[in-house]
Amino acid sequence: MGSIKLDGLKKAFGSQTVIPDANLEIADGEFVVFVGPSGCGKSTLLRLIAGLEEPTDGRILIDGRDVTHAAPARRKLAMVFQSYALYPHMSVYQNIAFPLKMAGEKADVIRVRVQEVATSLDLLPYLERRPRALSGGQRQRVAIGRAIIRQPAGFLFDEPLSNLDAALRVSMRTEISELHRRLRSTMIYVTHDQVEAMTMADRIAVMNAGRIEQFDTPLELYRRPANMFVAGFIGSPKMNFIEGARAREYDARTIGIRPEAIDWSIDSGKWRGRVERVEHLGAETVVHLSLDTADILTFRTPLDERLVAGRTIHVSPREDSIYRFDGEGRAIPGPKRNP
Amino acid sequence: MSGYRMKRAARLALAPSVALLIVGMIVPLATTLWLSFRYYNLMNPALGGFAGLSNYEFFLTDPAFAQAIVNTILLVGGVLAITVAGGILLGLLFDQPMWGRGMARLLVIAPFFVMPTVSALVWKNMLMHPGYGIFAWVAMKLGLSPVEWLSNHPLLSIILIVAWQWLPFATLIFLTALQSLDHEQQEAARMDGAGPLDRLVYIILPHLGRAITVVILMETIFILAIFAEIFVTTSGGPGYASTNLPYLIYVQALMQFDVGAASAGAIIAVVLANIVAIFAIRLAGRNLTA
Ligand SMILES: Nc1ncnc2c1ncn2[C@@H]1O[C@H](COP(=O)(O)OP(=O)(O)O)[C@@H](O)[C@H]1O
Ligand SMILES: [Mg+2]
Asked: Which of A219, A313, B32, B83 has most Cβ atoms within 10 angstroms of its Cβ?
């Protein structure tokens, strides 16, 4: 009903290769998030799947059918764009009805379907309005309505929440997750926000410079990052990376320690350092510590009045939570790591 | 500054240009109006005095008048049809990414800089001439007999010449409008199953609504007053086959020397042009504010 497979997919714009070689298997009904820094090729990969870009090489299979060169409308996928891309001269009703109209559906069928969709998205009072007369959240829902009306096999979202304010973003996030629970169709969701990725995804594809670095569940990415890029990208604040003698002690080029896996004390600990900056977030405090080398260590801890800038304290990483990486940045499996 | 004083200052600043406009427009208009009620024929200076409505009657009942009105409408309508349709097509073409697009865009506006008289002469002698025109040469190469454009299809020839002059303007306006069309909208339409024709009808043309209004408005105003092209090619003939309203007024005044009747014709032309303008501006007002 909506499994998607990418097989050696490659995309180059002229001489610039944006996606060198993407391989991915997405199961039917899965909520997959593509996450990565801006410009890493997430949109390009999504547009290749949508059929809006022609791949340079490789194959795309939907439900086992090769759709590499099929027209976008033939892939039974619907897309929600970052700008929503609503048709400005059409009413909300006409916007939502457009895909059915293009499919040659009868007028009374269209009317019934639009009513259903509008009801489920709380858009009934706005059907006669133009998109311009709607709020950001309502426009977003119209875009979703236009996507679900065709009952597609899969949905593609390209940073759909980035134009909304923070409060609305959180509630729309819940709404999209709710939509996925209700429809049970495959969804691919692109974002650069790792919190969005972690909270919504069944599985996350972490991308970097056009490559899929790791494809796994949110918890696995957090627990067992395949390399330094993934380790650094997932989790906030970022994982601390330390090189040199401290890393050699663990038989690694680099060791990684999450800010939440560090204990501190005033007078005793493994490493000594000076508090540079303290960020009080209310529930917790984020402390930036400079070790006696050039390394900066960030850790989070419950609120404590004794943590003030300039003070010297001691910290100890939890030994079972130390990640080890080799010279290429790949994770070294081994005993000195959290299972 | 208060709103009131601001308004007064704005009026004061506008006053000189408004005054100039009034002098430049009202004086000739008043003179024409005055003359249209007088007997005034250059061939018969003895005739004179108040003519009442007889100049108007003379002009309106002239069989050439009806034909000139029809010709004027055909000319405006024909040129608008060609330039709007052609302009949209060319605009779509030049909006595609292609090699040498900048240069091509520059070339497409070139006809706009050619004076009407010159372009009409070029068309008459280089393109449409049945003896040594390029069209005739192409026709002969294809084994056909050359078309006598200006004598057999005089109005069509004029429509083609004027359309050629205005096509760049339309293309430029449509091209600019197309460039502001959101790319994602077109892609959304593709995802929604809209083919190229559907996208043209449901996405591109509605987006071009304003631009089409502007083109129709501007061109109508200018094409109602076409004169030079007719003057240097067909001289309004054969008969009155390619005479439009401005050309008829010219014929009346300077070939039949009847200044009174010509003035009446001019006043009629002004009234008609204003009726058209009121409709056009209403239409534009609706489209441009929407
Ligand atoms: N149509 C295009 N032509 C040329 N380069 C492009 C095109 N689309 C994207 N790119 C390039 O591909 C890279 C990835 O872009 P994109 O997929 O939009 O990244 P992301 O969505 O992850 O921010 C960027 O370097 C961008 O400049
Ligand atoms: Mg993007």
From this structure: B83
What 3 state SS string does B208-237 have?
Answer: HHHHHHHHHHHHHHHHCCCCHHHHHHCCCC
Q: Give the 3-state secondary structure of residue A25.
A: strand
- Which of A231, A259, A276 lies at the terminal end of a domain, its last residue? A231
- Residue A331 falls within a domain, yes or no? no
Q: What is the band of A337 on the pLDDT scale with cuts at 50, 70, 90?
A: very low
Least confidently predicted of A297-306, B40-49, B239-248:
B40-49
Q: Quick check: A254 and A241 in contact, CB under 8 A?
A: yes
Å from CA of A160 to ligand 1 middle: 17
Residue A41 falls inside a structural domain: yes
Of all protein residues, whose CA lies closest to atom 24 belonging to ligand 1?
A: A39
Total domains present in chain A: 2
Indicate if ligand 1 lies below 6 Å from the C-beta of A15: no
Q: How many CB atoms are located within 10 Å of the residue B37 CB?
A: 19
pLDDT beyond 60 at B117: yes
Tell whether the model's pLDDT for residue B128 goes beyond 50: yes
Residue A45 scores a pLDDT above 90: yes
Residue range of the domain that includes A124: 4-231
Q: How far is CA B43 from CA A16, A35, B32, B39, B62, in A?
A: 80, 89, 19, 12, 19
Question: Per-residue pLDDT tens for A200-237?
Answer: 999 999 999 999 999 999 999 999 999 999 999 998 88
Choose among A73, A90, A150: nearest Cβ to B190: A73
Rg value, chain B, Cα:
24
Q: Which of chain B's residues have a Cβ under 8 Å away from the Cβ of A90?
A: 202
In whole angstroms, give the CA distance from residue A216 to residue A218. 6
- Examine residue A333 and say whether the peptide bond preceding it is cis (omega within 30 degrees of 0): no
Contact with chain A for residue B200, Cβ under 8 A: no
Lookup result for tokens 């009629």: B268
- Shortest-distance atom of ligand 1 to CA A210: 14
What CATH number did the domain enclosing B200 receive? 1.10.3720.10
**Residue scoring higher pLDDT (B165 or B99):** B165
Q: Is there a domain that residue B12 lies in?
A: no
The answer on A242 and A226 residing in a single domain is no
* A336 assigned to some structural domain: no
**For range B192-220, the mean pLDDT:** 90
